[in-house]
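ARCHIVE CARD
Drawer: 12
Card no.: 0347
Subject: one protein chain, sequence and derived structure
Cross-reference: see card 0346
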Amino acid sequence: MKKNKYIFLFASVLAYQFFVSCSEDSIDKVNSPIPYESIGGYENSDDVAASSLIAKFSFENTVSDSKNAITGGVGTNVTYGTGIKGQAYKGSSSSFIAYNAVASSLVDIKSITVSMWINTNPHTGGAQSLFMLPKTTDFWGNIFSLIEGTGPAETMLMKNHLQKDVTPSIAWSGQFIEHSGANVLTNMFGTWKHVVWTYSGASSTYSMYIDGKKLDLPASIAKRYTNDPASGGVGYGDLANSSVSKFIIGGFQQHLGAPWGAADGWMLNYTGLMDEFRIYNAALSDNEVVALYKLEKDNR
C-alpha cells in the first residue's frame, strides 16, 4: 500500500510538471511578439533616410526638436491635441513656437525634404504660415511653407519658398513655388493629410507629395531652371540660406519681433493641427516618402 502511494505521488508530480510546461509553452506562443511587416524596406518611420534627418518635432507635450538642430523653443499659447501619432501641436490665431538657435546642419542645407501631417480647415483674411526659417535681411525669410486663405473651400492654395544665393530666390510665380490654379491642392481640409515637398540641389528638381502620392507637376514647377535647358539653360543648384536667425513654427518671422517689423495684417498664425514635422538634408526618393507616410500612419 505504501509503495502504491509513492507511485501515485510520483505520477502526480510528473503530470503537474507536464501541465505547467505545456501551459508555459502555450503562453510563450501566444505572447511572443509578432514582427512588423516591412514597408519599403523599413520597420519604423525613423529608419527612413535616418542619416539625412536633421530635425524632428513629434509634439508629445513638448516643442523640442529631438534631433537638436533647432533649439531654444518657447511656445506662445501652445496647446496639444490628438495627433496622427500620439499628441500634436494645436494652433490658434495667437499660437506659435519661437526657437532661438539653428544648427549649421540646417543653415548650410543644400537639398531639402520637409514632411509633416496637418489637419486644418479653410480660413480667410490672409496666409497662415506652417513654419519659417527667418532671414534678418529679407522680408520673405529663407525657407517657409504657407497656406493662402483664398479659393474654394475644398481646395488649398499652398506656397513654398526656397532661397538661392545668386537670384533672390528659386523663382516661380514671383518668389514662390505656388500650388494654385490647375495645381491647387484638393480635398485637403477636415482630416489628417501627409504633406511632403522636396528640392534636390543636384538636379534642380522640386516635388510635392500628398498622402504618399507624388503630384504630377508641370515642368515649369518641377524643374527649377534659369531658362530652358534644351537651349543651354542651367539649374539653380544648391540652396543657399543666409543671414539666418531663429526659427518659427505656426507663424511668420515678423511674429518674432526685432529685427523684423510688426506682422502685416495678412500674416496669420497657423490654426490647425500639426504632427511629425521633419526636415531632411536630402530630397527623399518616392519609395522613402511612401514608406514614411505608411509607417507614420501605422503609428510606427
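Annotation on reverse: The chain is about 15% helix and 30% strand. Confidence is low (pLDDT under 50) at residues 5-11, 23-29, 164-174.
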